[in-house]
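The protein record filed here:
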Amino acid sequence: MSNERVLVVEDEADARELLVRGLERLGWHVAGASDGEEARRMLDAGWNAVVTDIRMPRMDGLLLLSHIRVLCPGALRVVITSFGDKDHVLQALNQGADYLIEKPFSAQQVSDLLKRLLQEQGGDKRIDQLFIQRLSNLPLSERERNVVVLVLKGYANRDIATSLNMGEQSVKNALVGIYAKLGVSSRGGLFHHVFPV
């Protein structure tokens, strides 16, 4: 492994230590922080990735994402979350998260994910570009990809219709077709399909 530095931000001490030690064994240079406030004091331009939980005391992962964007803008931002917590998931994506990973996961899965993301990294990291990149290999038309990007950003059908100059029923019909093509049945399933663990 090269010299990539990873900051793990997790308020559960055992989970944090397990992930830090696991990533170290896999060759990463890793440090841990117990919450967003501690992590903020550790941020500098040298981090290649920050893996953070959302719900933490003092400073949560959502506010931390905004500090990461300013203090180490080149770092990958991987957010630990639960897809059942849709509001926080959408906020994390809108705050610039590069990837979502759902508990439980292993250090090996996080390591593999970080390797892949670092290989893909480069250029514009805006959320729309991230989604378009993730959707590029899926069997979707350009219009369907545009619908999926807005779904993943948390837009309601009415807002998607307005943004894409479509009727609301057309958006519903498009979603039925998208779900069928991808073998999912809900927006949550769509998240899992685009952001597999």
In short: The mean pLDDT is 85. The longest strand covers residues 76-81. The CA atoms of residues 7 and 144 lie 36 Å apart.
